[in-house]
Amino acid sequence: MKRHDTLSRPAVQSLVASRIREVANAGMGRSDVLPFWFGEPDEVTPDFIREAAKAALDTGDTFYTHNLGIPALREALACYVSELHQPVTADHIAVTSSGVSALMLVAQLLLNPGDRVVIVTPLWPNLIEIPKILGAEVVSVPLQLSTQRTDPIWELDLDQLLDALTPNTKALLINSPNNPTGWTMQRAQQQIVLDYCRKHGIWLLADDVYERLVYDVPVGTRTCAPSFLDIADTNERVVSTNSFSKSWLMTGWRLGWMQVPTSLMADLGKLIEYNTSCAPGFVQQAGIVAVERGKDIVAHSIARYTEARNYLYEQLSRPVFREAGIVAPRPAGAMYLFFRIEGETDSLALCKRLVSEAGLGLAPGSAFGPEGEGAIRWCFASTIERLALGVQRLEDFIGKR
Ligand SMILES: Cc1ncc(COP(=O)(O)O)c(C=O)c1O
Prior knowledge:
Blueprint: H1 10-13, H2 19-27, E1 34-35, H3 47-58, H4 71-84, E2 93-96, H5 99-110, E3 116-121, H6 125-133, E4 137-142, E5 144-146, E6 153-155, H7 158-164, E7 169-175, H8 187-200, E8 203-207, H9 228-231, E9 238-243, E10 256-259, H10 265-275, H11 281-293, H12 295-316, H13 319-322, E11 326-327, E12 336-341, H14 347-358, E13 360-361, E14 363-364, E15 375-379, H15 384-400
Parallel strand pairs: 1-13, 3-4, 3-7, 7-8, 8-9
Antiparallel strand pairs: 2-10, 5-6, 9-10, 11-12, 12-15, 14-15
Helix pairs in contact: 2-14, 3-11, 4-11, 5-6, 5-10, 12-15
The protein binds pyridoxal-5'-phosphate.
């Protein structure tokens, strides 16, 4: 009898397992460990959103919905996006079961095996691995931690990015504000990149989940990162994926959306049918309330995280940490401080030691691609008190090294 192996596809076998998980698994369930490893707001979803889900359940909203989402939510999202960016109609918006599901759907929509996808790294591991599941080739353009100015800052060398966008490139994936560095692409660079992608027919995939979490924005200005949606036509080769997770404190709800050219919508509907069929109806009902009445939540998170970011940045810039080789930039967006440790070559081993010896849970830089090696990510969506405890533990650990 012919022998058959029982393994998954080679593309799946070669996916990298999450190193953030590897560290977290070493410390989860230990009450003495302070967890700053995952990218998750520390507050529960506000009452009025939870109430909306409960009310929907009480009225029996327990059935499948339209593949692309309930019309009222698509309309609400179209209004929300139109206010933030440019006018867009609901026929460009599809509701998805999370931001990460939206990313997988884009990959399924557009990527053939062997297609070249360019990404800017360090980057959230899911964004690096998802195109590979479809057999695409992923090419990285690394950000640089510039220490030329008084403040260290993560920067993109635009020429390097444009050089990587060879004529056979299928898509460019930009996550701005970026997880893990907080790097936030500014309008001038976006315009050049958009023009270049237009000229060469390259799809621009924008992961905008952190667009509302921006700091140092002048009072009275909209709290939203510059977006390709501000400058692109709604029917060109630009897809934006987004999520309820970070803007409205809804990580566990698994609700997201995407904006696409209408030419993709029918096929997207088919893919949603064959992936999840639809997002849960009562979750979508809660989503409507979040979008329509969630302004204060965004403002509240920005105020908290600004304070947390400033605190952590100032602490990690103290001489005791600088002398230990820590270079800490002040992130412009998202909710992470991604600091480098001079001379460090094994951030995974270091993070495991921090868990076991110091009770401090951080994410190793190497989880975000090889370009992240030597750095560590600290999620600052937390209280100052907890951050202070974490800083003290890091200081004690360094003292003993
Ligand atoms: C860059 C980035 N994109 C997308 C997501 C997906 O968010 P969710 O699947 O919770 O909607 C995350 C979550 O951490 C992220 O960091």
